[in-house]
Amino acid sequence: MEPVIHIQGLNHYFGQGQLRKQILFDLHARIEAGEIVIMTGPSGSGKTTLLTLIGALRSAQEGSLRVLGQELRHATKEQLIQIRRQTGYIFQAHNLLHALTARQNVQMALDLQPHLSQQEVRERVDAMLCAVGLGKHLDYYPHELSGGQKQRVAIARALVGHPKIVLADEPTAALDKKSGRDVVEIMRTLAREQGCTILIVTHDNRILDVADRIIHMEDGHLSETTLGISA
Ligand SMILES: Nc1ncnc2c1ncn2[C@@H]1O[C@H](COP(=O)(O)OP(=O)(O)OP(=O)(O)O)[C@@H](O)[C@H]1O
User: Fold this and answer.
1) Which NCBIfam families match (predicted)?
2) What is the C-alpha separation between 163 and 184, in angstroms, rounded?
3) Number of domains comprising the chain
4) Residues with Cβ < 8 Å from 201, sequence gap 6 or more?
């Protein structure tokens, strides 16, 4: 079976002409359906660049990057949008809209799914917010929520559309130990229930054990570490 994410000989460059600089070097990786993979590595090593390439948020330049069976190099705009529709993104800055309640922020993620009735949307949003422990905070605005609660809204928003892939960039960076732990446990539980594949970039050693596998980026080179602990 084809892996959900299949990277072969991927290179990436920033800048033009004399300023052109190679950031990613001959990357190879396979991530299978349902796997939870953590990517570690020093600041500036290229982790976010790779995450945004996989998420179809920037164009693959050289080599092969197949996501959900679609080659992203030379992919059309429509093909990239199809990949984005099947991907949930969770970033360090939770990017919630301040003028909207928790419920409305999560609901936005379903606006792209016209086949759902208003009633179904409401039920799915509320169930997802309950699943992340925010059943009593449905109508709270972001400024009324703690950092951990805001991050949980962001997780609910990323997962409510039942994405096939979740990409998370430092999801626990702004959180204390307990909230960080809670957030990754929720991601893991929901991912297991929905069967989705998760790739988390983190510097947070406290959450490494949620991973099935750990990969390491160093100066644009990717390696498998021996720290992999089965969850
Ligand atoms: N848009 C850009 N234009 C030029 N260079 C960039 C751009 N984005 C990132 N870079 C450079 O690419 C390299 C990799 O950056 P990237 O953000 O992928 O690293 P990272 O491993 O995610 O770092 P961090 O852990 O600090 O987030 C860095 O040297 C960075 O300065």
Assistant:
1) heterocyst_DevA
2) 17
3) 1
4) 38, 39, 40, 47, 48, 51, 168, 169, 170
2-35 pLDDT, tens digit per residue, is: 899 999 999 999 999 989 999 999 999 999 999 9
Specify if 157 maps to a domain: yes
Task: Give the CATH number, domain containing residue 52.
Answer: 3.40.50.300
Q: How far apart are CA 124 and CA 52, in angstroms?
A: 27
ipTM, 2 dp: 0.94
**Residue 133 C-alpha to ligand 1 middle, in angstroms?**
34
Gap from CA of 43 to ligand 1 centroid (Å): 8
Domain-located, residue 231: no
Q: What is the pLDDT of residues 37-57, one digit of tens each?
A: 999 999 999 999 999 999 999
Q: What is the domain extent for residue 116?
A: 5-225
118 lines ligand 1 (CB under 6 A): no
Angle at 148 between CA 108 and CA 121, to 5 degrees: 25
Instruction: Classify residue 230: in a domain, yes or no.
Output: no
117 part of a folded domain: yes
